[in-house]
Amino acid sequence: MLFVKNPSLDPWFNLAAEEYLLKHLDEEVVMLWQSRSSVIVGKHQNTLSEINYPFVKQEKIPVIRRLSGGGTVFHGPGNLNFTFIRKAPCDRLIDFRKHTRPVIAFLESIGVPARFEGKNDLRLKGLKISGNAEHVFKNKVLHHGTLLFNSDLNRLNQAIKVGEGRYKDRSVQSVRSRVANISSFLEQTISFEVFHQKLGEFLRKYFGNTKEYVFSEKELETIENLSREKYNTWEWNFGYSPDYLLSSRAIIDGEPVELRIMVKKGIIETAGFLATGDRPKKFETLARDMEGRQHRESVLCDLMVKHRLIDAESTDLPDEWIRLFF
């Protein structure tokens, strides 16, 4: 088994590295890693319905789709991620209990009696400390999970706080759970770095016969290309979402405006506004122009400038339009 050293904090690179390891290496793999603040959505989710768009935009938090299914998680300082890539018979690849067992054993060894609960969570006293997901490729399974050690839980909750009832779709919906940090359950305080080190040492002993692995220059280039061409694209992170209907309402220039759009493969198929006063004709023209275009802020901002609804110099949508469009 390879114990992969990955010091990168780049969330796009890290997700690309997992895919590379799964699809290009024959050996089984363990990798511990950390990313800068980012929201990571499941492969089959509607990204916009999983995030607090105004907050992640304001805080410049990237939103990235991963290879595996399941719900949305938050990565960042104080959160340690683990990846296991294992081989098994095809009918026994998906097994969350089996693949979380070494992590539970480690937590018990430091005095934290975590339990596997629900579909794929590790919890302490009913509070979620780890979300897990899996993806199958041929005769291998990629299992990865988060470990909230001393994360900023307020930032986490704000980033994935969503408005109810705005989006209708058939995507996989995240089940929101109350979360907690592992550090708050420890009898003796340890740093994140020590926690990371101890988990690494424990997993090496648990699996036995592990060999340290460092990416070659050629591998780094391959992963960077995958990161740039897939994980850092709007088409993958937003356009890949299942078809959805957005119904929203906002106050624009002191008057209520309602919007209803149908989006397929990231493209606005139909759009309609309900507005008062002397604005319906202008909105009707805008709605027609929106159809066939990406449901994307930069695209909508250009349209708003074109129709003289916002300042010509604008490169971002004003807050009230953000609330309407997303």
Number of strands: 15
pLDDT averaged over residues? 94
Looking across the biggest beta sheet, what order are the strands in? 7-8-9-10-6-2-1-12
Order of helices and strands: EHEEHHEEEHEEEEHEHEHHEEEHHH
Global outline: elongated
CATH architecture of the largest domain: 2-Layer Sandwich
Structural Rg:
22 Å
Low-confidence segments, given as residue ranges, are none
Q: What is the CATH class name of the largest domain? A: Alpha Beta
Topology (elements, then pairings):
Layout: E1 2-5, H1 11-24, E2 29-33, E3 38-41, H2 47-50, H3 53-58, E4 63-65, E5 73-75, E6 79-87, H4 96-109, E7 115-117, E8 121-124, E9 127-137, E10 140-148, H5 153-159, E11 167-169, H6 192-207, E12 211-214, H7 217-231, H8 234-239, E13 244-252, E14 255-264, E15 267-275, H9 280-290, H10 297-306, H11 319-325
Parallel strand pairs: 1-2, 1-12, 3-4
Antiparallel strand pairs: 2-6, 3-5, 6-10, 7-8, 8-9, 9-10, 11-13, 13-14, 14-15
Helix pairs in contact: 1-7
Please describe what this structure looks like.
- The chain is α+β, with helices and mostly antiparallel strands.
- It folds into two domains: 2-239, 2-Layer Sandwich (BirA Bifunctional Protein, domain 2), CATH 3.30.930.10; 244-325, Enolase-like, domain 1 (2-Layer Sandwich), CATH 3.30.390.
- It is built from eleven helices and 15 strands.
- It has helices at residues 11-24, 47-50, 53-58, 96-109, 153-159, 192-207, 217-231, 234-239, 280-290, 297-306, 319-325; strands at 2-5, 29-33, 38-41, 63-65, 73-75, 79-87, 115-117, 121-124, 127-137, 140-148, 167-169, 211-214, 244-252, 255-264, 267-275.
- An eight-stranded mixed beta sheet has the order 7-8-9-10-6-2-1-12, sandwiched between helices. A four-stranded antiparallel beta sheet has the order 11-13-14-15, with helices on one face.
- Strand 8 and strand 9 (127-137) form a beta hairpin.
- The longest helix is centred in the middle third of the chain and has 16 residues, at 192-207.
- It is elongated and about 75 Å long.
- The mean pLDDT is 94.
